[in-house]
Design brief:
With 118 residues, the chain is mostly helical. It has one domain. It is built from five helices and no strands. Helix 2 packs antiparallel against helix 4 (56-76), helix 3 packs across helix 4 (56-76) and helix 4 packs antiparallel against helix 5 (80-98). It is elongated.
Length: 118
């Protein structure tokens, strides 16, 4: 640690990226916790039904489950590269399938939670 501290490479690279990973993982996990709220999940299922998604209840639980599991993995830094793949797909579906591509409108900002944009 001391050798690394006195090295010419900046310390923020590792610890700064760790801080960003923890913050993003926390936000994603927080939103994924809705998978345990039956009322909110019913609302998401109805919304997906209105948007004509196939298997709306399954899609709602699958999306929120991915947010929760991938968020925890990103938060703790375990299998992050593997966890990011389904998370990116989920955020793209939320942004362009459910949000109709309205990235900065209607109180929906899922593009900010998509890994790679932070």
């Amino acid at each position: 640690m001391i050798k690394r501290f006195f090295s010419p490479s900046p310390l923020w690279q590792e610890s700064g990226l760790t801080l960003i990973r923890i913050i993003v993982g926390s936000f994603i996990t927080y939103h994924g916790l809705e998978v345990f709220d039956h009322g909110k999940m019913d609302g998401y299922s109805k919304w997906l039904t209105d948007l004509h998604f196939p298997a709306p209840e399954l899609m709602a639980y699958l999306g929120k489950g991915i947010e929760f599991v991938a968020g925890v993995l990103v938060l703790v830094g375990f299998l992050t590269r593997l966890a990011i793949i389904p998370l990116i797909l989920t955020m793209l579906i939320i942004t362009f399938g459910m949000g109709k591509g309205k990235i900065f409108m209607d109180d929906q900002h899922p593009v900010f939670y998509r890994p790679g944009t932070v």
